[in-house]
Amino acid sequence: MPPNSKDTDSHIGRRLKLRDLQILASVAQHGSMAKAAAQLSTAQPTVSQAIADLEEAVGVRLFDRSTQGVVPTVYGEILLKRGAEAFDALKQGMRDIEFHATSGAGDVWVGCMEALLHGLLPAVIQRLAQRHPKIIVHATEVNPSENVHVLSERKLDLLIGRSTRAQGDDDLNSETLFEDAFTVVAGEKNPWARRRKVALADLMDEGWLYGEPGNATQARISEIILAKTGRLPRVAMYTTSMNLRLALLASGNYISCIPGSVYRYGAAGRPIKELPVVDMALKLPVAILTLKNRTLNPAVKIFIDTARDVAKTMQADA
Fold it and tell me: DSSP H helical segments within the chain, as ranges?
């Protein structure tokens, strides 16, 4: 007969303590009872007893022990995952309370691909600051297609970038914000900036600023150029930095292909001009990624709504 839910809840309340789950996570992280004890500023016997109590409570071994240290068993991994979810739910609850108790104050942790740090994200943050000045954004550079694990680890609230469902996993929600159209640009002093019509083939002998080889977006740009002209341009420099690319473009000596969002926001105030190239037809989706089954706190929801508003403005003006 399955256990009564009230009995189960009572059993969990008596036998599983948050402190023990914290110790469990520390032991798994450090692979050692002694190192976990040092990190938690407690005695090793206390850590060992907490793990023993947890194993007795759940009825299975949570760690495999050896002379090299300890490694979570499959049961330990399950409890670690659910424990992380429990701590995160409590943290989210505290953030909800803060938001309501302080009239709209809160924090949002967002990871964003580097190009969007010069385009979409500044526009979102500025609009957010105007409407909700008590919300603080913590922004960091993250490539969503390679680092979606930061969401499952609860290190960030959301990611923004050119990641698709196929590149993520079944634990993620993906919402496309807009299609970012790429544009060919040069410095205002560049002779090509004075032309009324420019073909890609005309620019192949100019010095181009390229993303690093192996970059998926740069590969798409190269495919289009090769298809349109039968050759690839002369590359003057490879860089992962959009900031460096914009600075060099302003000098007037280079050509590059950048996202339209970067040209609209990141190039504003710089002596950079979009070239009238009609045969660079490339649009790539920009998406917001969040973790499924994770309740977003009010500040994060407001941030996402603001990002949607900015994206609508961009689409309307396109």
Answer: 5-15, 18-30, 33-39, 44-58, 74-101, 120-131, 149-152, 216-229, 242-250, 260-261, 298-317
Residue 171: the pLDDT is: 83
The tokens of 265 are what? 């926001």
Neighbouring-strand partners of residue 148: none
Cβ proximity of 315 and 140 under 8 Å: no
In the structure encoding, which two tokens stand for residue 14, read together?
A: 């008596």
Give the tens place of pLDDT for each residue, 230-279.
Answer: 999 999 999 989 999 999 999 888 999 999 999 998 888 899 999 999 88
Rounded to whole angstroms, the Cα distance separating 181 from 200 reads 16
Helices (H), 102-148: 120-131
Instruction: Check whether 8 has a pLDDT greater than 60.
Output: no
How far apart (Å, rounded) are the C-alpha atoms in residues 235 and 132? 44
Question: Residue type for 311, please?
Answer: A
Element containing residue 104 per DSSP (H, E): none
C-beta separation of 155 from 301 below 8 A: no
Helix axes 120-131, 298-317, angle to 10 degrees: 120
Q: 5 pLDDT band (50/70/90 cuts)? A: very low
**C-alpha neighbours within 13 Å on the C-beta side of residue 36:** 26
pLDDT of residue 3: 46
Q: Directed axis angle between helix 18-30 and helix 44-58, to 10°? A: 110
Q: Distance between CA 211 and CA 217 in Å, rounded? A: 8
Q: Give the tens place of pLDDT for each residue, 130-170.
A: 999 999 999 999 988 778 888 888 889 999 998 554 444 67
How far apart CA 258 and CA 263 sit, in angstroms, is: 7
Q: Is 24:83 a contact under the CB 8 Å cutoff?
A: yes
Report pLDDT digits (tens) over 34-43.
999 998 899 9
Positive or negative CA dihedral for 271, 277, 279, 285?
positive
Instruction: State the distance between the two ends of the chain, measured CA to CA, in whole angstroms.
Output: 63
